[in-house]
Amino acid sequence: MSQADLDKYRIPWHKTCWSCAAESVDFQCTDELAPLDHFIGQQRALEAIRFGLEVDKPGYNLFVTGLTGTGKASAIKAHLQTIVEEMQAQERQKPISDWCYVHDFDNEDRPRVLRLPQGIGRGFRDRLSDKVRVLQEEIPKVFKSEEYETQHRSTEESGRQATQQIMSELEAAAQAADFAVQLTPSGMTIYPMRDGRPMSGEEYQQLDPDQKKAIDEQRSQLMQQVQDDMARIRDVEKDTSDKIKSLERVVADQRVCDIFQDMLDGYRDIPAAWEYLTRIIDYVLDNLNLFKGTEGQPAPFPALAAPLLGGTPARDPYLPFQINVLVGESGVETVPIVIESNPSWGNLFGRIERRAMFGTYVSDHTMLKPGSVHLANGGYLVLNARDMLMYPGVWEGLKRVIRNREIGLEDPTQQAGFFVPQGLRPEPIPVDVKVIITGDESLYRMFTSSDYEDFWDLFKVKAEFDYKVDLTPENLQAYYAFICRTCEEERLLPFDASGATKVVEFAARQVSDQTKLSTRFGQIKDLLIEADYWARKDSSDRVLGKHIAQAVQHKVYRLNLIEDRIQDMISDGTLLLNVTGEVGGQVNGLAVYDLGDFSFGRPSRITAQTYAGRNGIINIEREVALSGRTHDKGVLILSGYLGAKYGQDSPLTLSVSLAFEQSYEGVDGDSASSTELYAILSSLSGLPLKQHIAVTGSVNQMGEIQPIGGVNQKIEGMFDVCRLSGLTGDQGVMIPHQNVKNLMLREDVVDAVREGKFHIYAVKTIDEGIEILTGRTAGERQTDGSHPTGSVNYLVEKRLKELNQSMRGYYGELITSVS
Description:
Layout: H1 43-54, E1 62-65, H2 72-89, E2 97-102, E3 112-117, H3 121-142, H4 146-176, E4 179-184, E5 187-194, E6 197-198, H5 201-206, H6 209-266, H7 271-286, E7 308-309, E8 312-313, E9 324-327, E10 337-339, H8 345-349, E11 351-352, E12 355-357, E13 360-362, E14 368-369, H9 372-375, E15 380-384, H10 385-389, H11 394-404, E16 406-407, H12 412-415, E17 429-430, E18 434-439, H13 441-450, H14 452-458, E19 461-464, E20 468-470, H15 473-490, H16 497-510, E21 516-518, H17 521-537, H18 545-559, H19 561-571, E22 582-583, E23 586-594, E24 599-611, E25 616-619, H20 620-623, H21 629-646, E26 655-660, H22 673-685, E27 689-690, E28 693-695, E29 698-699, E30 705-706, H23 711-725, E31 732-736, H24 747-754, E32 759-763, H25 766-774, H26 792-818
Parallel strand pairs: 1-18, 1-19, 10-15, 15-18, 23-28, 25-26, 28-31, 31-32
Antiparallel strand pairs: 2-3, 2-9, 4-5, 5-6, 7-8, 11-14, 12-13, 16-17, 20-21, 22-27, 23-24, 24-26, 29-30
Helix pairs in contact: 1-2, 3-6, 4-6, 6-7, 13-14, 16-18, 17-18, 21-22, 22-25, 22-26
């Protein structure tokens, strides 16, 4: 019986962790470095972003995926800025415009859009506002001129004379008929005369019927003439008023045009602005009464007039002069880059504000407020998908804006069919904006499955960020520059070489890879801040390597309460676990507990019992609904392996029960499938398994060991449990050989491996693993089909044949008794 050579499977200590030697760093302290001005790695994602931004066609918007904490927002903004600068240097930058809302003279509830060249909007608004005050000062002077007053008096006198002529004719006609005409507050009254005085009512009643009839007929004729003459008087008054207005317009026309001439000349090349100014001039000439205040004391410039017209607040007569500069890009040299952190409807698409007045709500074009889409027009808008989906209707509204390439300000309640008081309908603004949405992969799949047609049509480019990058000299230098930049931004102490190297080692551990570095810079930044705290507590002027270790240890201490409680239960025997000796059909498997902000590993006892029968492998966890689908799959694979390995000549007649002992919660994952197989082989062969070696790794039907996740936590979990009762020097963990590159173990574990107090073995197949656990060779099948005597496989196959023979006898007796 040959013994297995365990040394060929043992991993040397220097392979259990990657170390960044401080001597390899070309600086003494990070304050000697230049701060990071670019993003580390992510070339695939950055190239995809560049492609999407440079393709200036509809639908080429971007969806950026990647795990949180990879710095997507900062990377996107920096990359956008770089592309914008390149396009500006190549003179390919899009023109930027100012967008204004102005009064619509034809429909005051539908404000018009005024598009102006970049930087002109606010100046145009201020100059027009100044013109109002100039008008209030200059127009009263026009109406005080001698020429105007002479013509005004002449026009009024002509009208007065025409009115008097009509009244004189009316009075003459009345006198001829022996009637008198008298003006009263309620109108004109006609009454008969007698002896040069008005006839009283008693005198009228004493007249005979014929006289009354004659007076009534005469009075009726005169009343008709009164009505006709009153109409003539109104016509005269209207004509006089029109002549005065025409006179005022003629007199003021030249002065008003002179006042606006500089603006007309200045904006002649901007048709929309020039046309609006001409409409303003017409409005001024049609409403000269607004400017006839006392010279030198212009009337106030209210925002909203208070008088009621028909029970409704009257519009401010000065409203047409007010320009709402919705987007004014004065002083901006590049296209806008807007990152909207709270994409509600109002923040994204703008809003219509209202003012309560006299029991109702009023609004006008000056109360229109821009959203991020307006501010990003002509540039780039960055949104977070999860934040956007928190607000109902925003996603549909965004799709409508992108599809129609225009945005109209509207109240979100209108979309739900609710009544909105005094609803304005502003003219839509044309939109040319690239939309970049960030989100995780699950959100991307949700969009592609539930909103397939619209999503693919509007977001044709996907940029995927990775959560890790290659550990190269260039990326190491970039990491050090990132530490320098964080120190400047957060006002941290500088990091010396030992502190900086510990940071990159921590970054490698975060991704459990000796050849990669984590790009979850949020976690790295937290580490830098916490290490700075401990350095200051230590009165150090620099952050050293020991402060990094201190920050990591204290963070674990804050989070590992549950881990400590489990170790206490193992120590006091509440959780049954052997880390010494040998037991048949029993092995220590390794599991990882993920608490969200903290994960840790711990060994669990796995047992197998084999006996005669044809039930196959019974997964007790599955029978009680504590097993997940992946674990079920791993157990089912064991049947394939056993059948292919030992059931080629005769069928397997076997019953096996598998269990995770003292497991009261769910079990999932296939990383324990090789462990369960070792327990079965031990039970069949009768060979005990070493309890001081814990096992992890999944297995396929060919008996090959497959890599698993959480290898560092699993190894450290076993190490911590062994340390509770004292390290014996033969304890260790068996892992898949593919996971060797994932080893980034704690320093105390590495030290124990280097000193020979703890061991890590790497295996490729089940045969190699069973040799380590039993100390006996597995035994390869010989040319005659048998295994070497005394080997593990020999003993397993021997036991299976015994079970098969016993079952044949059992079923033969059963058939005979039935017959």
